[in-house]
Inverse folding.
């Protein structure tokens, strides 16, 4: 019973991690950039959901309708103003630039919203449904999971059925060849970064009802998102989805059977093990390590 | 030869500074921070700048030195110098384990793996009992050869000594066989390997030198502050500050990290101690009781990391080779 319980809650929280991981993987795939501001973009999503709820009285799940376009636009602009200028620079400069952008976001949030953690309490925040007699599933996590599944489905259709989606796909396969085929790769990069930002903010908004909202919350999620991407294969969207669920389960299992203090250590050990044994990830392409 | 003379002259000036500014613990404190960051960043630069292996986890070695020293002194009453040597050994062991994992990886993966190792070290220190967990370790009393360790002056000279030592190593290394090999690895790993350079050996050598020096600074810092916890000595932010200092001065140069520290540390200190907010209020630019005045007084102290972020972004966009890189291009 314990096993099933922690398996199911792991899968549910893994869904949200997957969303964050997919966003990062998309950016990596199309732009070949490790985005160290990803966690802070998630944090911004948390605050957007919080303020939409407290100031505008919009339910956090409904507020996604506002958050997704806002975050997309924000990411698009960030790419146009900053990221595109270093797209041909060495990796370490790209990493440092995104670290810098992340520091600006988290510390501006610290100045604007202070370091007091905020809590978003909805009428259903602590409610749970019981299934199979005895296994309880948190309602907000369940809702988040369903929304995650829907968004992932839409994203997948977008990437595989629309012209822009296919152009993104082509850019991530081979940037130069895509450019030769007449794809505007600069525009694709901005779209990919916008999508990545929107996915990060969505993941943030989805966990806002069950997590402390804090300016430095992004840090934890950043490292988790990286682990998920590496596990799934950097650049692989489907891999990141699976990686997210696996990390959710690993966390939940290590909390149940080990101690919740050590769950992050377990995640990082898996991260290093994957890097050593299968650096291309579960579903990644070989040769990019 | 010229460079060694410059080190000697600057060290001489630095050695006289405490006499010049008199007995001001605050300024000595700021100077100690400058010397420490200059040395940390120079040590990082041997691996990151010379060999091009950007470690994002150097806090792990700083923390290894700090924690080993504090545990040995506070629990087993060890001599501080012996504890420092023990710290070097622990840091080198962590470095060897890290090296065996991360040096097989390149590009993005290397940076990510170095963070993962450092986070494992941090979380372990946070969760084990013998490291004091979240409470950290407090040192009530420490002594060495009857020197008054309540004063900041011995630590000022200690940091200066380590900085001079680190700079001499960095200088010698640059013109040595190892130094040239490291630079070859930085420019093109595959080409270096095909010329017969043992990549793994030289990368690990650079990492061990860098980690050992970093741990000495961690030990000194711990005994100087007499309190450590994971936020102070093992945080990712420390690793990032070390890199930024080198980047802003000029990565891969001997003097870049020193220049970066001289500029950045006092700036951060001014923001942290709210000097800028005070000046604005005193000059009457901002009224103390206005909304903005209260906000600045209350919050500007948190802003130093924000300023670091802005400087990083501007630096990467406009002078990725750092301040010294600007001069080099003009020549």
């Amino acid at each position: 019973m314990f096993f099933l319980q922690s398996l199911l809650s792991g899968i549910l929280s893994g869904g949200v991690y997957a969303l964050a991981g997919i966003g990062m993987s998309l950016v990596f795939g199309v732009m070949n950039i490790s985005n160290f501001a990803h966690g802070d973009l998630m944090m911004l999503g948390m605050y957007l959901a919080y303020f939409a709820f407290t100031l505008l009285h919009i339910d956090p799940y409904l507020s996604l309708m506002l958050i997704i376009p806002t975050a997309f636009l924000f990411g698009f602009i960030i790419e146009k103003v900053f990221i595109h200028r270093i797209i041909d620079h060495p990796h370490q400069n790209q990493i440092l630039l995104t670290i810098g952008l992340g520091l600006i976001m988290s510390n501006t949030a610290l100045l604007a919203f202070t370091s007091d953690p905020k809590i978003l309490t909805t009428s259903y925040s602590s409610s749970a449904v019981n299934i199979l007699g005895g296994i309880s599933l948190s309602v907000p996590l369940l809702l988040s999971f369903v929304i995650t599944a829907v968004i992932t489905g839409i994203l997948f259709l977008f990437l595989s059925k629309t012209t822009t989606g296919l152009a993104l796909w082509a850019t991530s396969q081979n940037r130069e060849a895509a450019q030769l085929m007449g794809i505007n790769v600069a525009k694709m990069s901005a779209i990919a970064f916008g999508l990545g930002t929107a996915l990060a903010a969505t993941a943030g908004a989805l966990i806002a009802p069950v997590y402390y909202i804090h300016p430095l919350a992004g840090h934890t999620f950043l490292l988790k998102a990286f682990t998920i991407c590496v596990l799934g294969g950097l650049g692989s969207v489907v891999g990141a989805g699976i990686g997210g669920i696996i990390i959710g389960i690993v966390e939940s299992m290590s909390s149940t059977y080990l101690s919740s203090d050590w769950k992050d250590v377990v995640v990082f050990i898996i991260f290093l093990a994957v890097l050593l044994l299968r650096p291309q990830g579960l579903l990644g392409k070989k040769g990019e390590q | 030869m010229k460079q060694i003379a410059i080190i000697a002259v600057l060290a001489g000036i630095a050695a006289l500074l405490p006499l010049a500014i008199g007995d001001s613990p605050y300024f000595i404190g700021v100077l100690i921070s400058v010397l420490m960051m200059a040395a940390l960043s120079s040590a990082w630069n041997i691996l990151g700048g010379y060999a091009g292996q950007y470690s994002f986890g150097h806090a792990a070695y700083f923390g290894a030195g700090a924690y080993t020293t504090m545990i040995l002194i506070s629990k087993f009453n060890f001599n501080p110098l012996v504890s420092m040597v023990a710290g070097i050994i622990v840091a080198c062991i962590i470095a060897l384990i890290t090296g065996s994992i991360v040096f097989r990886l390149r590009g993005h993966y290397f940076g990510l793996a170095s963070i993962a190792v450092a986070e494992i070290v941090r979380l372990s220190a946070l969760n084990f009992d013998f490291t004091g967990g979240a409470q950290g370790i407090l040192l009530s009393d420490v002594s060495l050869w009857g020197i008054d360790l309540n004063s900041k002056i011995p630590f000022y000279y200690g940091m200066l000594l380590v900085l001079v030592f680190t700079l001499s190593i960095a200088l010698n290394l640059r013109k040595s066989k190892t130094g040239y090999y490291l630079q070859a690895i930085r420019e093109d790993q595959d080409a270096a390997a095909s010329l017969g350079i043992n990549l793994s050996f030289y990368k690990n050598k650079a990492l061990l030198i860098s980690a050992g020096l970093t741990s000495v600074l961690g030990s000194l810092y711990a005994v100087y502050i007499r309190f450590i916890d994971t936020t102070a000595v093992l945080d990712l932010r420390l690793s990032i500050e070390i890199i930024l200092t080198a980047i802003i001065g000029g990565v891969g140069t001997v003097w870049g990290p020193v220049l970066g520290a001289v500029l950045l540390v006092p700036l951060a200190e001014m923001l942290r101690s709210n000097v800028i907010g005070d000046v604005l209020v005193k000059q009457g630019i901002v009224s103390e009781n206005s909304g903005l005045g209260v906000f600045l007084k209350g919050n500007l102290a948190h802003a130093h990391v924000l300023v670091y972020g802005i400087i990083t972004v501007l630096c990467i966009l406009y002078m990725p080779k750092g301040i010294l890189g600007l001069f080099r291009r003009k020549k």
